[in-house]
Design brief:
Elements: H1 5-34, H2 37-63, H3 69-94, H4 101-123, E1 131-133, H5 137-152, H6 161-167, H7 170-183, E2 188-190, H8 199-214, H9 216-252
Antiparallel strand pairs: 1-2
Helix pairs in contact: 1-2, 1-3, 2-3, 2-5, 3-4, 3-5, 4-7, 5-7, 5-9, 8-9
Keywords: Lipid biosynthesis, Lipid metabolism, Membrane, Phospholipid biosynthesis, Phospholipid metabolism, Transferase, Transmembrane, Transmembrane helix
Pfam families: CDP-OH_P_transf
Protein name: CDP-diacylglycerol--serine O-phosphatidyltransferase
């Protein structure tokens, strides 16, 4: 079977994304065996770099007009490895192993729910193309990695957050569990794939990039945390509004 060289390019990005996820698993294991915090931070950066590659493969496919069913399936399998298995193993080696079956259960649940999230995304055609149903699995993996980076680099030591979280490791397991639930929830999160760029968005992007250059891990952590909280708060206010609206109708009738 002959394959056009054009189709190889986007799939190379996907393959590289998987490879980064595997390297993250190896580094997380090294961090556990050698009690090396640098290995854990390296594993986090591998997963974040895998996220960049994952974002590029689809765009390259669209630019070169080489989108295919094979590429879609390959991308989903890559996401399971890079953003499902890799962060789950990272969390288990980082703190989960200290809590025995609880650590194994939550880490395994993260992978399973992440796979369900991807399967639902692949078979669901939503008319609202500007939003995702449930937290995207790359964002779920990113927030876990960024929290680890922030704590390891002690970026929030001034407020005592770093020392508090590092002395209460079970908070990482709780975070992993909540993020896993968000992936299969019906909470909607904005998609920026079809954003219409203008001068306002361009200036905002420059400000964000400046913050990321100055404080990479902390800035990215705050951005992704705000993204996750936005979806939760939006869902909460919609539910509250519906309850108030129904009560108002029932009182009027």
């Amino acid at each position: 079977m002959k394959i056009s060289p054009r189709y190889v390019l986007p799939n190379l990005f996907t393959a590289a994304s998987i490879f980064m996820g595997i390297l993250a698993i190896f580094m997380a294991h090294k961090g556990l065996m050698n009690a090396d915090s640098k290995a854990f931070t390296t594993a986090c950066w591998y997963i974040l770099f895998s996220m960049v590659l994952d974002g590029l493969d689809g765009r390259v496919a669209r630019l070169t007009n080489t989108a295919s069913k094979f590429g879609v399936e390959f991308d989903s399998l890559a996401d399971v490895v890079a953003f499902g298995v890799a962060p789950a193993v990272l969390v288990f080696f980082y703190v989960g192993h200290e809590y025995g079956r609880y650590g194994m259960a939550i880490s395994g649940l993260f992978v399973v729910l992440g796979a369900i999230r991807l399967a639902r995304f692949n078979i669901t055609t939503s008319p609202e193309t500007n939003s995702f149903i449930g937290l995207p699995i790359p964002s779920a993996a990113a927030i876990i990695c960024l929290w680890i980076l922030v704590i390891e680099y002690k970026r929030l030591e001034f407020w005592g957050v770093s020392s508090f979280v590092s002395s209460h490791n079970y908070l990482f397991l709780i975070l992993t569990f909540l993020v896993a639930i968000l992936m299969v929830s019906n909470i909607r999160y904005p998609s920026f794939k079809k954003i219409k760029w203008n001068l306002k968005y361009f200036v905002l992007l420059l400000l964000v990039l400046t913050c990321v250059i100055v404080q990479p891990s902390l800035s990215l952590c705050l951005i992704f945390s705000a993204y996750i909280l936005y979806g939760i708060l939006r869902w909460f206010f919609i539910v509250v509004f519906k309850i108030i609206f129904k009560r108002k109708i029932s009182n009027e009738s």
